[in-house]
Amino acid sequence: MIPVTTFEGRKVALFGLGGSGLATARALKAGGADVVCFDDNEARVTQAAGEGLATQNLRDLDWSDVAALVLAPGVPLTHPVPHWSVDLARDVGVEIVGDVELFCRERRKQCPAAPLIAITGTNGKSTTTALIAHLLKALGRDVQLGGNIGTPVLELDPPQPGRHYVVECSSYQIDLAPTLDATVGIHMNLSPDHLDRHGSMENYAAIKERLVAGAKVAVVGVDDRLSSAIADRMELARKPVCRIAGEKELTNGIYARHGRLIEAHDGSQVEVALLGGIDSLRGDHNGQNAAAAFAALRALEIPAAQIAEALKTFPGLHHRMEVVEKKGRILYINDSKATNADAAARALASFDRIYWIAGGRAKAGGISSLDEYFPKIAKTFLIGEAAQDFAKTLDGRVPFKISGTLNQAVQDAAAEAAEDGAEEIAILLSPACASFDQFPNFELRGAAFVDAVRALPNSGNTQEVA
Fold first, then answer.
1. Gap between the Cα atoms of 447 and 430, Å rounded
2. Paired residues of 434 in beta bridges
3. C-alpha span between 83 and 62 (Å, rounded)
C-alpha cells in the first residue's frame, strides 16, 4: 500500500467503494486523512464500515471543511450527467480527484525520481502495459504494475529510488488526474469508446491527450488520424515526442514492418528488433504495442540490444491473443478480452486460416465492420445471445454453425480444423461481444475456453504454451 500523506490531518470525502475505491479509502486513512466514505450500494458501505472506515451519506456531510472529493473512476464526472456527489463538491468549490492523482502527488512528495510509465489508448493499452512491465523485470528492474490493468495503483509498494511504476490509465482515471506527470507517457490509439461518459469523440480524445501532455517524454501512436494530430500538437509545443506505428512507415520514430521493429531518424532506417516468431506479438497491432514498449525503454536509456532480447521472452497478456496450446498445426488462441468488433479485428488480422468462435452479448454495430477479414475465416462457430444476429451477417459470406455454448464450439471447431490441410490453423476465441449472457466476465469466459481446449483428445503433437 502507498499511504496517501498529502491529505494528512484534512477531511476527505470519498465516493465509490468498489475495488479501487476501497483501496483508496484505506490508503487515505493510512496516510492520516480524515476520510468519510459512501457508495450508493449499501453492501459496499457495510463492508467499508466493517473495516473500520468512517462512512456517512455524503448528502448529509458538512462540506465547509472538506479538502477534496475522491471519486472512483466508475462514477460519472461529467456525462451523461455528473453524479450527485460531484454536484455537491462543485457547489462549494471542492476539488475532485481520483486514485491516480493521489498516487502522482504522493510520488512527487516521496520520490519524484521513481520512473513512472503511464499508458493509455482505446485498444492495446493492457498488452503494452504488461509488455513494458515484463521487459523491465526481465532486465532486472524493480517494477510495480497496476492501475486499470488490475491492481489499484495505491495498493502498489511505496515510491523509492529505482522503483519503476508501469500504470495503465483509463480515460476515466485521466479525467480525475489533473496533475498526471509521467516520466514517459504513452498514447496508443483512438477509436469511438465510452462516449456515453465523455459526451463526444472530441472530449474523449482531449482527455486521452492529457496523459502525454503532462509527461516528460511523449510516445504517441500515429496509425489513426486523431492520434497523429496529438503527436503534431506535442511537437509544436516543443515536447520530446516519439511517434510509433504498427501499420505505416515513419521517417522519424519507431514502427513495425514485416516482423521487424524499425527505428527511423530523418528517413534513415535501422532494424532494432525481430518480432517474427514471437507468437505473443503477432499482428500489426502488436507491432504497435512492441514499438511503444521499445520507445518507452529507450526513453529510460536502456540499450536497444537488451530490449530486443527481452522481447523474445514475452508470454503475452492473459486472455488477449494468448496462445494457450498447440496441437500439431493447430493453434488455440484465447482472445476473450476482445469484447467488441474493433478488438476482434486485431486478432482476425493476425492469422490466415481461422476457425472463429464468436458471440455473446452483442455490442452496437455487431460484426458487420469485420467483413474485410471474412476471406480468412474457414468457418465461424457462434455462441450466446448474438448467434442469430451474427448468423444473418455471415449468411452467404462465411460458413457458420450455431454451436450455442463455448464448450460445444471448441469441440465443433477442433473436429473441423482436424480435416483442414492448411499449414497453420488458428482456432480463435475472439467473441466481439461482452460475456454477460453466459459468463460473469471475459476472464471466466477465457478460462472456460482453456478448459475446453485441454479437455480435447490429444492429437499426438501437443505443445502446451500457457
1. 13
2. 361
3. 18
> pLDDT per residue over 139-184, tens digit each?
999 999 999 988 999 999 999 999 999 999 998 999 999 999 999 9
Cβ atoms of residues 245 and 213 within 8 Å: no
Gap between the Cα atoms of 369 and 361, Å rounded? 17
Q: How far apart (Å, rounded) are the C-alpha atoms in residues 144 and 386?
A: 39
DSSP state of 397: T
Residue 224's Cβ-side half-sphere holds a number of Cα atoms within 13 Å equal to 14
- Name the strand (E) or helix (H) holding 46: helix 42-50
Compute the distance between CA of residue 385 and CA of residue 24 in angstroms, rounded to an integer: 37
Three-state DSSP class for residue 234: helix
Alpha helices, DSSP H only, in 144-194?
171-175
pLDDT tens digits, 395-450: 999 999 999 999 999 999 999 999 999 999 999 999 999 899 999 999 999 999 99
From the CB of residue 220, how many other CB atoms can be counted at a distance below 10 Å? 30
Instruction: Determine the Cα–Cα distance for residues 254 and 271; give it in Å rounded to an integer.
Output: 10
- Rounded to whole angstroms, the Cα distance separating 100 from 179 reads 9
| Burial category of 140 from C-beta neighbours within 10 Å (exposed 0-12, middle 13-18, buried 19 and up) | exposed
- Mapped onto helix, strand or coil, the DSSP state of residue 352 is coil
The separation between CA 229 and the C-alpha centre of its own chain, rounded to angstroms, equals: 22
Given a contact cutoff of 8 angstroms between Cβ atoms, the answer to whether 380 and 394 are in contact is yes
Catalytic residues: 125, 148, 194
Query: What cell numbers appear for 25 in the block?
Result: 479509502
As a whole number of angstroms, the distance between CA 399 and CA 380 comes to: 6
- 263, β-bridge pairs: 254, 270
| Residue 112 dihedral angles phi and psi, to the nearest 5° | -65, -15
Distances (CA, A) of 5 to 26, 73, 104, 116: 12, 21, 12, 19
Q: What is the mean pLDDT of the chain?
A: 93
Task: Output DSSP code: residue 7.
Answer: G
Q: pTM higher than 0.85 for the full model?
A: no
Interatomic CA distance for residues 115 and 138, integer angstroms: 17
3-state secondary structure of 270: strand
